[in-house]
Write a structure and sequence with these properties.
By secondary structure, this protein is of the alpha/beta class. It has one domain (5-130): Rossmann fold (3-Layer(aba) Sandwich). The protein has 4 helices and 6 strands; from the N terminus they run βββαβαβαβα. The chain has helices at residues 33-50, 70-83, 95-108, 121-130; strands at 5-8, 12-17, 22-29, 54-62, 88-92, 114-118. The chain has a 6-stranded mixed sheet, sandwiched between helices. α1 packs parallel to α2. This is STAS/SEC14 domain-containing protein.
Length: 131
Amino acid sequence: MNLPTLEQTPYITIYYDEENGWLYNQWRGEQTQKTVVTGANFVLTHAKRLGLRKLLNDNSLLTTPWQGAAAWVEKEFLPRAAEAGIEAIAWVAPPEYFNELSARLQLLGLERPVIFPFEQAALAMAWLRDV
């Protein structure tokens, strides 16, 4: 990937896609409550600093779902993302976690940010360009 790296840890790399005006957040491996909270805070810090409205959240390299952190993402991260000006999040999930993520996102019923799940990053990028 030829995008500038803003943050890199063993569990997340945050790239800045200036051409498209979003952060590309590539999560990896097994996530814990601590890694999700720390990584999500990095994402919000960079998005606010750059004045971005869109996120591409790529979970395709996860080895386990975020089960322990899902409630925190729903109750803390997403409202804070909306307050920070994030309007749209394309969320890429591996096939084995896609149905669970889709169901959770539907149940949230959020107006902002608009969140849409994808199984492929290319489709997520196309959608994010159009919102």
